[in-house]
Design a protein that fits this description.
The protein is an alpha+beta fold. The chain contains 7 helices and 3 strands, in the order ααααααββαβ. It folds into 2 domains: about 100 residues, no CATH class; about 70 residues, no CATH class. Helix 1 packs across helix 2. Bound molecules: zinc ion.
Length: about 180
């Protein structure tokens, strides 16, 4: 006799636990952190935050298990992962800010440079070194994501430049032919 597969009442809790486990890895700047961030951000909005299956190879056994559980539950229940953990919105914002280049328009330089991109030119007020950076969308651009002066690391005499000291001097369109 055919029947409906009974719903395992512990499934939502397992999903929440998997999301929580991946979230604590996703806020770290590491290969595993990138993979965990890809999975979580993609479960939230896969179009804006595409995930690569090969990056799953960066996960250890326990985190891979959590990723597969989360993917499976989300596919069957369409549950936004932000809603199943405490402070989900804040935590997901933090994950996005830790890995802004996972955002589709910034993701692959190749893709980005296929057409034209907006590039910002920042200048260090101390040594006047210039630094270019792809323009992040406004929602990814709090002061914390402003670039810093790379010369600070090379030169002991260079004062520590607070990120908010860097001066945005220009924004221009960069067009590079795809080879
Ligand atoms: Zn400098």
């Amino acid at each position: 006799m055919r029947g409906i597969t009974p719903i395992d009442p512990t499934e939502p809790k397992k999903y929440a636990a998997a999301v929580s486990k991946l979230a604590s890895l996703a806020v770290t700047d590491s290969a595993g952190g990138v993979a965990a961030a890809e999975v979580l951000l993609s479960l939230r909005n896969g179009y804006a935050w595409p995930a690569s299956l090969t990056s799953l190879r960066s996960l250890d056994h326990h985190n891979l298990d959590a990723a597969v559980k989360a993917i499976r539950y989300s596919a069957q229940n369409n549950t936004d992962p932000r809603t199943v953990i405490e402070n989900g919105d804040d935590i997901f914002d933090r994950i996005a800010l830790t890995h802004p280049t996972l955002y589709r328009p910034l993701r692959a330089q190749d893709d980005f440079l296929n057409g034209a991109g907006q590039v910002e030119l920042w200048v260090c007020p101390h040594c006047h070194r210039q630094r270019q950076r792809l323009q992040y969308p406004d929602w990814l651009k709090p002061a914390a994501t402003a670039p810093w002066c790379e010369k600070y690391y090379d030169d002991d005499r260079h004062p520590e430049v607070d990120e908010s000291d860097m001066v945005l001097t220009d924004v221009y369109t960069l067009v590079i032919e795809r080879r």
